[in-house]
Amino acid sequence: VDTKADADSMESRSIHLDQVQATVTASKAGKAILVVDACYAGVGRDGQELMGGKRFAVPAYAAADNAQITVWSASSANELSGPFEPARHGLFTYFAVGALRGWADGEFDDRRDGQVTLAEAQTYVAKAIRTVSEGGQQPTMETRPIPKGWVLTSANNLEEGPDLAALLLE
Questions:
Q1: What mean pLDDT do residues 51-76 have?
Q2: With b meaning 16 or more CB within 10 Å and e meaning fewer, what string describes 10-22?
Q3: Which pLDDT does position 100 carry in this prediction?
């Protein structure tokens, strides 16, 4: 919100992903997940261009090079991510936060066990985006392989997710 609509301001007020990764690595925090919803079509929620003629996307080379850091991005390399108008929010962020609230619990076998793993969250978010959008956006996780055992959230009362088909009608 504090960046003016010009390239110099955008550059000087931005934080590069490699800087964030270096900070996490230096902290010796162990495993870390960077959730990045920084790809967008260059328009605000009101539909107006933020910077005329500019479009932003996470480039193909912006991948984690550290096995302890997982970068979970809104879209695949060179894709643009979009909004989810019914929620007045970013499409990826809406479903990623929902996954953390419990919507992804049981994604693989329909058996809710009170925890959401990283693999369940990625699978749920990708499916939800495919279901409610017109395509063109595929969230990614940059780590090989996706660590299935990483538990992101755990509780006795995780939320159940919305009916994705019903969201299409909103």
A1: 65
A2: eeeeeeebeeebe
A3: 94
